[in-house]
Amino acid sequence: MPARSKESLIPPVDRTPPLRRLRRVAGDAGLRTLLGPGLARHPSERPSIYLVAPSGHPNYGDELILRGWLRHLERVQPDADVVVDCHTPGQAAVLHGREHPRVTFVDTLWRICAESEHLDEAEAADFAHRVIHDPGILCRIVSGIEMLARADVIHLVGGGYVNAVWPHHLALLAAASAAVERSGGSLVATGQGLTPVGGGRRLELLRRYVERFDVFDVRDTPSWEVIGDCAGVSLTGDDAWLAIRDDGIYDTDSEASRRKYVFCLQIDLMDGFDGGRGVDGLTSAVSDIVDRWGIDGTDTAFVEGIPGADRVVYDRVVDLLPGAEFVPFTDVWWRGLPARRDQVWVSTRFHPHLVAAAAGARGIALSAGGDYYPVKHRSLVEAGSHWAVAETSTLPDAPADGGFGHETVARLRGEKTALAGRIYPDVPFPVRHVRSARRRFAARSASR
Are residues 317 and 174 in the same domain? Predict the structure, then answer.
């Protein structure tokens, strides 16, 4: 399906100095009126980029996406002030604190969400909007709200966190849109997975807020089908494609990287697997794979995407696989995913599927029922992964085909990189003030 997007309010091509562009429209007197004489003479404020991410839990996929965007900004906007707003900022700072020279970690938007979690979606969205315009309502985070309301760009980075699984996260969209009402900045979202969407009032609210974004990019067809007719919407796949060729994505030197069979098996969000058997059904599926494929523990590794949650099934089946290697999240994060072309993977998690398949590994994705994980895994199959997707403990034979082809990986990475280029061209000036002034001048002209 072709992508459709509205250009960012940050000019992607015109390199004319911003004050000169305003002067062409408003003249010298108008420029002084709009910007004030001090800023008109000394436009020295750093650009402020505000990233929103479900980071710090930690979760391999969410961290991979955030790291990719921080590295991209380090390349194209090294002098910008970058703020990461996430639910666990302390741990996120440990994982990402060196990825950009001017990065700060806060939890402002996520605290607003937590304060409104007990409300229905419409009330939560209204509360989030009011808090941004009247920060004293949450007086302990006034400073954080003011930082948010000064951002040039507010960017909800990719992931599957704005959907009916976590309905209160709709308040993220409401608060972010209120913040750009104050700042005049750009509002963008990339690589979003919106399913399960929910219906009725929630769907109406979602579409209303999407219309307020300058760019709203999704990662799968079902999400596109819900909002694809809204202005500014595009479909370029998961945000992890931006980072797929970054340093440290793959581990090629460890013992785990030499193993032929690799498993990544979670217990969170897997209750619907095998008709509701959950972790018991998952354990049965893995036991059956070990038996039917004749897997030996000395040629097997297990990797952890979320610490603790991805060790439970391993502990249940390890007696069947003496000599199996277990790779904790910390090793996966700091050394890379131990994936290579001639491996066979079995993964419940989406991003190990994406990254291992991008290396050419063949595999099976085990998915719980419903509209969350199946949509994610099938989006990769639609994009070119040759992995099988199974939702029960009755599994297919070991797949014969590999993952993504080289050309497909290059195309998917190129589309995401092009989107990043539209959002963050190399524009070293205070775009917020220029954009706000442009809008005020247009409003004044229209009222005459």
Answer: no
State how far Cα 355 lies from the chain centre: 15
E strand residue ranges, 29-162: 48-52, 81-85, 103-106, 153-156
b/e map 340-362, b = 16+ CB within 10 Å? beebbbbbbbbbbbbbbbbbbbb
Q: What is the pLDDT of residues 337-348, one digit of tens each?
A: 999 999 999 999
Q: Which domain holds residue 317?
A: 256-390
Q: Indicate if 222 and 274 belong to the same structural domain.
A: no
Give residue 26's pLDDT: 52
Residues 6+ apart with CB under 8 A from 410: none
Confidence label for 369 from pLDDT (cuts 50, 70 and 90): confident
* Same domain for 268 and 195: no
Angle between helices 121-133 and 200-210 (to 10 degrees): 30
Average pLDDT over residues 193-199: 93
CATH of the domain at 53: 3.40.50.11720
For residues 171 and 54, what is the distance between their CA atoms, to the nearest angstrom? 14
The 10 Å Cβ neighbour count of residue 445 is 11
